[in-house]
Amino acid sequence: MEKAHKDILTTAETAKLLGVSVRTAQLLIEGGSVPSWKTPGGHRRVYRADIMGLIERPAPGSPFSSATVVIVAPSERLAHYDRLFAAVPECTAEIFDDVHRALFAIGSMRPHAIIVDLEPGDAERETLLHSLAANPSLGHSRIVVVAAAGTMAGVDLPRRVAPVEAAEQAAAAIRISLVDAGAPTPPVSDTLFPIALNESQRLVALERSGLLDTLPEEAFDRLTWLAARNLDAPIALLTLLTPTRQWFKSRVGLDTPETSRSWAFCNHTILQKGVFSVEDLPSDPRFADNPAVAGALGFRFYAGAPVHDDEGFVVGSLCIIDRRRRTLDGGETQTLLALAAMASDEVRLRAIERQLRNTLRKAERQAPGRDHTLALEPTGGARSQDRV
């Protein structure tokens, strides 16, 4: 019984173990980001095993520049890793069976973590591990090797490589390592909505995107128009979620430019890898009392897909809303995912443009005698006319 008691944690004990505030731990538990149950007295409890990490968390103040995880695994195990990381909404997984393609991807990004699935006698992946561990540009990245018991016998493993015995352990360790070092700004109301383990990092990524409170842009307006048109929906939105607001970068069929974040169905969408859909909002206890459902707006149906930035963080969603109960078929689901992917591409393109502008400014400072500069026009073509 003593062991069982130690394996069960209160909210305060969870907060202490994760290194976050009690408020943050409460939001994670109440929102469903950490599996939990209620005692007869109404108190939440969690299992220690569900929140324990198998790799060390970074020290407070360490940079969180990426939410991308690169996985190198044998071809027959790719689908298994894909399923595992589909359940980890805080990160974007790039999965490879070819070492050289993986190295190219790693070289073009700053991954949060790299997982190498090692089979007995796999000299190429052993060499990869040593190369990654010795690369100073990857000093911020966690490196995990997955190898069955006994596989690592006789292998000189670099000190910074964390060994685990199963892919499931690696996924659990990575998710815990994504927990915020500081508490996110709490919602302004008592309504608890689900938030990501790395919500503070996601909010930094949103601010870094430069999209919040900007003018309409044709590139995004085309996507919401296509969503409404092709999916036969009266309302289509490109939403960005701040600590307190749901702000619409683009909107079709809705007059208001924003709502309270507590109204946002997209709080659930940004914790999904695919489409989050609710066929009948009034009959869903999560949304029945939502002002957009119970009030004059009368929303009945919602479907949304996440929109990512260049570092793999979810900054918002592309969604459609209807005032009638309905479902999406397979083709419509794929259409919404494709449009959300195009929106993600637009977000990433703007990051590339900012990087190029910064490079040009640095070059100009280093060569003050230059008689010309290169001007870049915004890709999306900012405009001021009213949206539909």
UniProtKB/TrEMBL annotation:
Residue spans of biased composition, Basic and acidic residues class: 360-374
InterPro entries assigned: DNA-bd_dom_put_sf, GAF, GAF-like_dom_sf, HTH_17, SinI_DNA-bd
Domain GAF per the UniProt entry, residue ranges: 215-357
Top-level taxon of origin: Bacteria
Ranges where the record places region Disordered: 360-388
Annotated Gene3D superfamilies: 1.10.1660.10, 3.30.450.40
Protein name per Swiss-Prot or TrEMBL: Excisionase family DNA binding protein
Organism: Ancylobacter amanitiformis
Lineage: Bacteria, Pseudomonadati, Pseudomonadota, Alphaproteobacteria, Hyphomicrobiales
